[in-house]
Design goal:
The complex is a heterodimer. Chain A is mainly alpha-helical. Chain A is built from eleven helices and no strands. Chain B is built from twelve helices and 14 strands. In chain B, the strands form three sheets. In chain B, strands 5-6-7-3-8-9 form a six-stranded mixed sheet, with helices on both faces. A five-stranded antiparallel sheet of chain B has the order 13-10-12-11-14, with helices on one face. A three-stranded antiparallel sheet of chain B has the order 2-1-4, with helices on one face. In chain B, helix 4 crosses helix 5 and helix 9 crosses helix 12. Chain B is of the alpha/beta class. The chains are: A mainly alpha, B alpha/beta. At the A-B interface, helix 1 and helix 5 of A face helix 3, helix 4, helix 5, helix 6 and helix 7 of B. The structure holds adenosine-5'-triphosphate and magnesium ion.
């Protein structure tokens, strides 16, 4: 090991910025993301293309010709599912980024223990994750929006609001998964269970591919607590121009409340996990 | 080679003297700023972990430790003695469950963020990001201390050289050997130019050459005024590095002093080692027990603690003891450790 020279550096030249800790964690996660940013952005464009072609155009041609097509509210099937596809993709990204990648920083690489040995606090680590996932969601939702625009199913200027709708849905679910990851000692398939028994059913039955009026009343309450349904309603309202102030505020408030509650919970669990 | 900065004066940092008032200490009682609060002051410090099975683990059971600025201090002890638990409390990443603790004159419960900003920590288990390069690991770590990007890059280059990883600087950490990762972790702990360096088994996994180089580096840091706290299982390392050390066992401190004082207090001047085929040492033991005050039975040898090794060896020979080989040596911390932690101790 060679000579170390810190003669011109003093602690005063390296001010600790306690509140900036979350930004530093964010910066770190972005740096990690750089390694797979290109494939992940390619996926963010490729996936919508596939879905739009298969479901929107392929399946859509049958649906639009069918006798029940009025249930969609007088729009084509492609128009009907387009906003929901964007929101579903955001959900997918939020949940997957919040699960194994974050969990591995507790469990396998133990990176978070290194971070909290510095002035950065566990709560800021959690915030950094949230900021990063938010950034991922912004990038992916924007790309999705552009693809929808290409297909002519992005609505008017209000259609841009699909992007925040997707982000809000994704991040509200992500914080819950972050909270789960903070308490898991061994994975034991918990994430896989959540994907299989929560995320997949949610994707199928939240008014993404067919209106929930097609569902029996007895199970419709389940849909009302589905964050994805609120996200879908929000996004669809903006694109199709059917948004009403009351319901828009209601859906957004539901998602915002879920996000805040999840964030508070996740921060608390991060603290509990990292300060032992 | 350029000179590093002179040791920092305590008076440079208002927080130290201010907090010293909050926690008065005999050393600082006379009002001289140079003698402000010690770097570490623990009194009846405890750490109890709750467990799922119900019975809590008492990892640290009321230890008193005081480390002064510029000192290098060691924790020795067998596995599970509570060394890492203590280190983690000192590093302000683990809350104490009892007693008093003051680091750099501040209370970790209240000022953890400020304290951590001035510490360097080498944890027992590496926690590098193996997906990033050596250099990136150093840079991002510096950022957590609020150091500017350009300054981080500059320091990273220095530390890459310090860790002798120059040709690996832009390699993913994943492909480094265990010892290289360890060196990187040690280098990383210096990115914020810490006043207090906490090293939990720093040289585990290092080859002998790298260990000696590290000792040399730590020695220099110490000369520059950095306070060192080390845990180790290598007694030669403890003798090399530590001005003063404590031996922990079962969560309590069983002995304290300089390496020399400990050897004086807990061992004889010389040690006669009688080596046997494993298993046959027990037959020889009754023949020599009354020759010396203390005999230690190890799997393949007997250790006879004596003031005069050669004389004891002659006496053993005359009693018909026929070891495969013999060795007369000076007592080391190893002998102190064997005695204090009661491992294979036969009285
Ligand atoms: N997070 C934890 N939860 C429960 N018990 C713990 C935890 N961390 C440590 N312990 C227990 O506390 C005791 C002391 O552990 P510690 O890691 O401090 O020992 P150590 O002296 O560092 O040992 P080693 O030399 O093996 O590193 C052990 O019995 C250990 O099982
Ligand atoms: Mg340990």
């Amino acid at each position: 090991m060679a000579t170390l020279d810190h003669s011109h550096t003093r602690p005063s030249s390296s001010p600790s910025v306690p509140s900036g800790g979350r930004l530093m964690v964010w910066e770190y996660l972005l740096r990690c993301w750089r390694r797979y940013a290109i494939p992940s952005l390619a996926e963010a464009i490729g996936t919508p293309l596939l879905y739009l072609l298969a479901l929107g155009l392929g399946l859509g041609s049958l649906v639009d010709a069918g006798p029940q097509s009025a249930a969609l509210g007088g729009v084509s099937y492609l128009q009907y599912i387009a906003p929901a596809l964007l929101v579903a993709a955001a959900l997918q990204i939020g949940v997957s980024e919040g699960s194994y990648p974050a969990y591995s920083r507790f469990k396998w690489s133990r990176v978070f223990w290194g971070v909290t040995a510095t002035p950065v606090t566990p709560g800021q680590v959690c915030d950094g994750e949230v900021l990063f996932i938010g950034t991922r969601l912004l990038a992916a939702s924007t790309l999705y929006y552009l693809v929808l625009l290409m297909f002519g199913v992005a609505g008017g200027p209000a259609g841009l609001l699909m992007i925040p709708s997707g982000m809000l849905t994704g991040i509200a679910c992500a914080v819950l998964i972050l909270a789960l990851g903070a308490v898991l000692q061994s994975d034991g398939g918990a994430f896989a269970m959540v994907f299989r028994f929560v995320v997949v059913p949610m994707t199928l039955f939240s008014g993404s591919f067919f209106p929930i009026t097609q569902l029996p009343l007895a199970v419709r309450w389940l849909v009302w607590i589905s964050p994805l349904w609120h996200g879908n309603e929000l996004a669809r309202g903006f694109v199709l121009g059917t948004a009403e102030p009351c319901s828009t505020i209601g859906h957004a408030a539901f998602l915002a409340a879920l996000f805040v509650a999840g964030l508070v919970l996740a921060r608390r669990l991060y603290r509990r996990r990292l300060i032992v | 080679m350029r000179e590093r900065r002179a040791p920092r004066r305590i008076g440079d940092d208002p927080s130290v003297t201010r907090s010293a008032d909050a926690m008065p200490h005999p050393a600082g009682a006379n009002g001289e700023p140079e003698k402000a609060a010690p770097m570490i002051a623990a009194r009846r410090l405890c750490k109890t972990f709750p467990t799922a099975s119900g019975r809590p683990v008492e990892a640290v059971r009321g230890i008193d430790v005081q480390v002064e600025r510029g000192e290098s201090f060691g924790f020795l002890g067998p596995n599970g003695a509570g060394k890492s638990s203590t280190m983690r409390m000192i590093a302000c990443v683990s809350a104490r469950t009892g007693g008093e603790l003051s680091i750099l004159g501040m209370d970790p419960d209240l000022d953890g963020v400020r304290i951590r900003g001035r510490l360097g920590v080498v944890p027992q288990q590496d926690n590098l990001d193996v997906e990033l390069t050596v250099r990136e690991n150093l840079i991002i770590y510096g950022r957590y201390f609020g150091i500017s990007r350009s300054e981080c890059r500059r320091r990273a280059q220095e530390l890459v050289e310090f860790a002798q990883l120059t040709d690996k600087a832009d390699t993913k950490v994943d492909v480094l050997s265990g010892g290289m990762k360890r060196r990187l972790t040690i280098a990383r702990s210096l990115i914020n130019d810490p006043e207090l360096l906490l090293l939990d088994e720093p040289t585990t996994g290092l080859d002998p050459q790298a260990r000696h180089v590290l000792w040399d580096r730590l020695f220099r840091l110490k000369n520059e005024g950095v306070t060192l706290v080390v845990t180790t299982h290598y007694m030669d390392e403890a003798e090399q590095l530590c001005d003063r050390l404590v031996v922990m066992d079962g969560g309590v401190i069983v002995a304290e002093g300089s390496p020399k004082a400990l050897i004086g207090a807990y061992s004889s001047r010389e040690v006669l080692e009688l080596r046997f085929l494993p298993g046959t040492q027990q037959q020889a033991e009754p023949l020599v027990t009354d020759l010396v005050e203390r005999v230690e039975v190890l799997p393949d040898r007997l250790l006879l603690y004596t003031e005069d090794g050669e004389a004891t060896l002659e006496a053993a020979h005359s009693r018909g003891v026929r070891p495969r080989s013999t060795l007369v040596r000076r007592s080391t911390l190893e002998d102190v450790f064997l005695r204090l932690t009661g491992r294979s101790l036969v009285d």
